[in-house]
TrEMBL record:
The keyword Transmembrane helix does not apply. GO terms for molecular function: ATP binding; ATP hydrolysis activity. SUPFAM superfamilies: P-loop containing nucleoside triphosphate hydrolases. Keywords: ATP-binding, Cell inner membrane, Cell membrane, Hydrolase, Membrane, Nucleotide-binding, Translocase, Transport. SMART domains: AAA. This is Thiamine import ATP-binding protein ThiQ. Coiled coil: none annotated. Its EC number is 3.6.3.-. PROSITE patterns: ABC_TRANSPORTER_1, ABC_TRANSPORTER_2. The gene is thiQ. It comes from Pseudosulfitobacter pseudonitzschiae.
């Protein structure tokens, strides 16, 4: 039996995309920050896509907090997601983009509008409510997307290289903000990244994806200090 604090469980999962296969049999505990790393083309985005429900499984089951979501659509899975691009709708204001996290139809109550304002203030965007994304910097756009995750308050946040386009200092700021948002909402985080320094800054655990397998999460510090051969080769 799995412990009660397991938020995500991939049970004997097999994913196939054309000739590509990926296996995963692992769990993520509540509140853990997990980096997904591995060589290009190893299947990191595929793993996240399967967890999010965009890629069907050939075999196995995905559970969230004990609920089998294998057949659930992405919007029914109870996760918040952030991807590399396209996180904000260009025709909506910052406040509306965040409000979508509460209500897809955007008819917010006074209390929900207050939540949106508070979330924007929490990520350093007070006063930016009425701007559209085109009038925000890259870092501000990332902050707005994180504010949306904050109001969603889901137990799992999935991020696929959301800050790849930002410079190193800004990336560090955003990773710290993800940590704060996750702490506020007590969410676990699964984040794809290419950068070993991101792992050290952010992650409690690492899922190493390589050779057609998403390996079980291992403690980040010990793994990075003493990587097994395949990880050592990847890290260079
Ligand atoms: N729709 C598809 N049909 C067939 N093969 C696919 C499809 N999508 C991805 N693949 C293949 O699946 C493998 C894993 O791709 P994926 O994007 O998950 O890798 P990744 O580890 O995220 O890579 P990167 O670090 O370069 O972003 C690759 O070999 C890719 O070519």
């Amino acid at each position: 039996m799995l412990g009660e604090d397991v938020v995500l469980y991939l049970n004997d999962v097999l994913i196939e995309l054309g000739d590509f296969n990926l296996r995963a049999d692992l769990s993520v505990s509540a509140g853990r920050k997990v980096a997904i790393i591995g060589p290009s083309g190893a299947g990191k985005s595929t793993l996240v896509g399967a967890v999010a429900g965009f890629i069907p499984l050939v075999r196995g089951h995905v559970s969230m907090q004990g609920r089998d979501i294998t057949q659930s659509s992405p919007d029914q899975r109870g996760m918040a997601m952030l991807f590399q691009d396209g996180n904000l709708f260009p025709h909506l204001t910052t406040a509306q983009n965040v409000g979508l996290g509460l209500r897809p139809a955007l008819r917010l109550s006074a209390d929900e509008r207050r939540q949106v304002r508070e979330a924007l203030a929490r990520v350093g965007l007070a006063g930016f409510e009425d701007r559209t994304p085109a009038n925000l910097s890259g870092g501000q756009q990332s902050r707005a997307a994180l504010a949306r995750m904050l109001v969603q308050g889901k137990p799992l946040m999935l991020l696929d290289e959301p800050f790849a386009a930002l410079g190193p200092a800004l990336r560090d700021e955003m990773l710290d903000l993800v940590t704060e948002v996750a702490a506020d909402t007590e969410a676990a985080v699964l984040m794809v990244t290419h950068a070993p320094q991101d792992v050290r800054r952010f992650a409690d655990d690492v899922i190493f994806v390589e050779g057609g397998v998403a390996h079980v999460p291992q403690a980040a510090g010990a793994l990075m200090d003493n990587p097994p051969p395949a990880l050592k080769t990847y890290l260079g």
